[in-house]
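During the reporting period the student researcher (J.K.) took over the structure-prediction task from the postdoctoral fellow and processed the backlog of single-chain submissions. One of the processed entries is reproduced below for the supervisory committee.
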Amino acid sequence: MLKFWYKEFSQYPPDHPDYWRIRFIGHSLLITTIYFAILTVINLVYFSGSMYALLDAFGLVLSLGIYYRFCQTGHVKITAWATTLMLTSLIMLFVISTKGYVHSLLWATLIPPFCFFLIGRTWGTYISSLCFSICVFMVYLQTKDPQQVTFGIGALLNVIEVCIAQILLFRFYEKTRFSAYQKLAIRNLEIQKMAEIDKLTGLYNREKLDEVLNTLLTTSAANTDTINPLIDTEDASSSMAIGQLFNGNIIDKKISTKPDLSSPSLHPISIVIIDIDHFKRINDNHGHLVGDKVLCELAQLLQSKMRNDDLLTRWGGEEFVIILPNTSLADATELTERLRFYIAKQNIQNMALTISLGVTQYYPEDNAHSLLERADKALYQAKSQGRNCVAVA
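J.K. obtained the following structure tokens:
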């Protein structure tokens, strides 16, 4: 609505610090132009007040002149000051000319919203304080020479006009506040993703692995299974893809009897550590860029074989870790053996590639460190047995 009025400047995109100040300048000048046009007609026709009509007509011409100049130059700071001084001066001239009667003092309440948004907190405070001091002084003069006051149409119109202006101003303020919070929330999510995701492969990184594993083990130890801790509710409906590590199928299994925590099979959690066999040769023979491509392609292949609740992460270098919730050691061994066989059949970057895998299962006395350490020992055993195999610890 009224998009023709709001000038778009290519040098001030929506993420620019002055974007909303520019929008507010256009918003303010649109309001003042309409107000001054209406007030000019009312004062000239209804009240026959030529002085006030002339003041409003001057404000109308000045508002249009400032807006035209702003559209031509795009000078935000100069226009902000010009708009502020124009509005403040005209409002205070009107208040002083009426000696603060007929509710004209209400117009002064419009000064702080304009000043603070357009020229900042410091100068907004100075100008608003000065204007309010003048208003206080005028009320003080009224107490020195009290008069009987009758309220007419002029007072009613002042109240109505100021109320409408306040609503329009604060509606704009709310829009900017909502937009700012929305952008901040999006930015925070982006920062969180950047902190959690491995830039090369798009998988979760070591930090996220530690966080999820600690949460999962703590939850399992506390015997609370209403929600799988691996599930990110934000990604619950997203498709499986590299950079999106799992689909959001929530496990909702209710247990009617109190379980025995000593049983490792009650809430089985298995861990797999994967290492690319002879990866150093790839870097030495083909270069690190090819090695990076191998890691990315392998990550995609591994991800394609993950179940809904499995979590694949890059542990570092050429090593990956898979968290298998609700998976016993026997099932995990079978799954990893199929995974090893699948990778061995693939042609990755025009070369044959094999992986070694170490598998272990969580026990109640485990923590994240001991669990990963045991899986790492199993991986070392697989490599010592000739690689391209699965070892269990």
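The committee noted the following: Residues 153-196 form the longest helix (44 residues).
J.K. will present the remaining backlog at the next meeting.
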